Each structure stands twice: as structure tokens, then as C-alpha cells.
Amino acid sequence: MSLSRCSSAVVVALVVLSVAVGAVAAVETTSDGVPQESEVGSEVTATYTFTELYTEYESWTLSGETNLTSVTWTVTKYNQAGNQIAQQSYDGREFDAQIDIDSGSEETNRVTVEIQGVTPEVDTFQFDPAQTYTLSRFQLVRSGGTSQSLSSTSVHHFTTDSKDAREAIEAAQATIDETGGSSEAAATLDDAIEAYNGEEFGSAVTFANNAQQQAEQDQSTETRNRLILYAIGGLVVVGLLVGGVFYWRSQQDSYDKLG
Known about the structure:
Helix content is about 35%, strand content about 30%. The chain has 4 helices and 11 strands, in the order αβββββββββββααα.
């Protein structure tokens, strides 16, 4: 496996928010506070806002689920003037909230869902693509049980050791890319990635550092050889010039003797 197939933008763009198209695209979803990545055991808070609630259906259920642990969902409803008219909290990895145009004396115009929870453990470490967990997945559920996706957000999660290993591998790859590193350096980098995927993060760091050093040594050797070639080329040019001068002088001496 070669890291060249992996863009760092995968670590730095590991948050994916997808909004369904078609009929339910009318329910607009925006988000705030969604992290690009989070460390295992750290707390995460994000807020999602849903508008255009009744373009397709006047009564439906907003359903949410997550891979976070110790989760609390806070669902807040607002009227057209932007005033809060209802709020309810749910615990657990899933919740259902009724969205109904005829509920209560005021029509719900906008709904926000704040999710708070703890970043889960990593089931399987994978360098490319980086391992992720589902921060949130929302669905519109109609009476009868049919459902359609509204949005889904995935986030890269890591441990201190896995992050150190990933950073070492990325640094080695950058050096190899810059120097055009040898096959030996590339093979050592592959060993680092394999160690990462096997959760041997200390070995992954060692392999990655070795790959980086090999690439730097390759560059140093190439630079030295290039300088040597330049020096040899310069000597050849000087030699030709000197030889040319001697030949010119010898020709001049011959002309003088003939004269």
C-alpha cells in the first residue's frame, strides 16, 4: 500500500456532511461546531439546524443516531419570529422528535438539535482512508415507517499514539515526494503504514522516521553526485580551453617559423 494514494486532505477533510437530494432536499440542514477530528475520550458538541420543514410533509418524525457515547440530544423548536416555543432533551444514541405543523398554538418554523457526547473507541485502525465514526445521522421518518436521509456526518477519531504515528508517516511521505525518494524509502514507508494498520504505533513511527532519513540521504547523495558531475564537466571544459590555447599557440609558432 502506498501513501501516494492518500491525500492528507483525507485527515484534514475527514468531516463529511451529506444532504439528501430529491423530495427531502426541501428540508434544509446546516451545522455548526462539527470538528474535523476528535480524540478518543474527548467531548464533542455540535449543533444542527433544520428549516423548510413542511415543504413536502406537514407531519413527520425527525430521527437521529450517533456513535458517540454518553450522549445527550437537545431539540429546540422556534416559531416564525425566531422565539423558542419548545425544548426537550433525549439521552442515548438515538432519538425521535415529532415535527407537526398543527401541534400546539404556534407552528414550528425551525428546529435545532444540539448533540453532546464522548468520542468513541476505535474499532479498527486504518491509515487510508482514515478511520471515522458517525457523529450524527438524521432521517425524516413518515407515518408507516418509511424514512429518507437528511444528513450524515463522519469524523476522524484518534488516540495520542495513533496521531503521532500518522504525523510521522505524513512527514515521511512529504519528504519522499519532495526528494523523489528511492524504492527503499518507499518500501520502508509501506512498512510504517502496515504497522499503523496493525496498531503497532511505536513501530510505525520508527519505520516512518527511517523512511524519512533514507529519503533525505538519497537527496544528499544525489546532490553530491550532481556536484561531482558538475565539477568533472567543469574540468573537461577547462581542459578543452587549455588544449585549444596550446593548439592555437603551436599553430602560431609554425606560422612564424615558416615566415
